[in-house]
Specification:
The chain has eleven helices and eleven strands. The protein has 327 residues and is of the alpha/beta class. 37% of the residues are buried.
Length: 327
């Protein structure tokens, strides 16, 4: 069974209960991936395990190579869907590597090795979901992340990741006022959560919680992630957060949480309140008792960063209110 379109041929070589094997030949360009996309998408949906012989493939455009990672991500990513390429000649193999295609879609020299790679997690795994402008999208995002963390054995950061994606999606739906696209990417160092919306002009700003309010929004994103940022584009913006998944992730999370608790104590009592200092001292004493002096030092260093961010956010909010105050 084979099909050809605009010089690109896609042939189903074999299919059994576990694996579908395709051979792709001819030129793959940005204008000709339709046939390949339809064939492989259906196979990934049906058998979930697909091998592709690319020994006869030529790239009309390097960017066209991204069709393979995109197909895999659209099908749910590893391990729900598994895709391995094989047989690339040296120039094509180098191109796939340079474009980081092989980071998520492995490349084997021949079919036998490709079959073995189906059962090994690639260096990076990714999946994405599109969410509508609905309040329920935050809950859908949490469930999406929960499923990915279960598949990728990321229980150590699952709860943090669910909170982070919920805050980022709520920010897109409520403040940016659009639907959004959530992309998860798990690599050697940890998990990156990216949420893109269609309102590039509305950049998110951390809002300092009022007395009695819990930490939320970008404050809690910053507290739970090692890094976060905003990448603006012409028609959209992407807000992302990186959560490490190494052996030290739990320790780092505890440090950041403790520092955030200290900031909360200061904000709750007021920076100049006589109750703020005793509250922080009490917290530090409990931390030293349970975790030791080095932990307290790490919290102190993190606290400097947390307080600086909180002060900057308050200054930004005061400046904004000053500009919009009609009086």
């Amino acid at each position: 069974m084979s099909a050809e379109h605009l010089g690109l041929a896609v042939e189903l070589v074999s299919r059994d209960t576990n694996v579908s094997v395709f051979a792709v030949s001819g030129e793959l360009s940005l204008s000709s991936p339709g046939l390949l996309t339809r064939s492989l998408a259906k196979a990934l949906a049906d058998s979930r395990r697909v091998l592709v012989d690319v020994s006869g493939l030529r790239l009309g455009s390097p960017a066209a190579a991204q069709v393979f990672p995109a197909l895999l991500a659209h099908a749910g990513g590893w391990p729900a869907a598994r895709l391995v390429l094989f047989g690339a000649y040296p120039t094509l193999a180098r191109t796939f590597s340079a474009l980081r295609v092989t980071t998520t879609v492995p490349l084997a020299p021949e079919e036998a090795t490709a079959r073995l790679l189906l059962d090994q997690r690639p260096p990076a795994v990714t999946r994405h979901v599109h969410l509508a402008r609905e309040l329920s999208s935050a809950r859908r995002a949490r469930l999406f992340v929960e499923g990915a963390c279960a598949d990728w054995q990321l229980e150590v950061i699952r709860d943090d990741a669910m909170v982070v994606v919920s805050e980022l999606v709520a920010n897109a739906v409520v403040h940016a006022g659009t639907g959004c696209r959530v992309v998860l990417r798990y690599g050697a160092r940890g998990l990156t959560i990216s949420v893109s919306d269609q309102n590039p002009g509305r950049l998110p700003t951390p809002r300092v919680p009022a007395n009695g309010e819990g930490m939320h929004g970008l404050f809690i994103v910053a507290a739970l992630s090692l890094q976060w940022g905003v990448s603006p584009g012409r028609d959209e913006k992407c807000v992302w957060a990186f959560l490490p998944a190494t052996a030290s992730a739990a320790y780092s999370h505890t440090v950041r949480t403790a520092a955030s608790d200290a900031v909360r104590a200061v904000l709750a009592h007021g920076v100049d309140s006589p109750d703020a200092a005793p509250a922080v001292r009490h917290l530090v004493a409990r931390l030293a008792e349970h975790h030791g002096s080095q932990f307290v030092q790490d919290v102190a260093e993190e606290l400097v960063v947390e307080l600086a961010e909180a002060s900057a956010a308050m200054a930004t909010e005061d400046e904004h209110e000053g500009r919009t105050d009609p009086t």
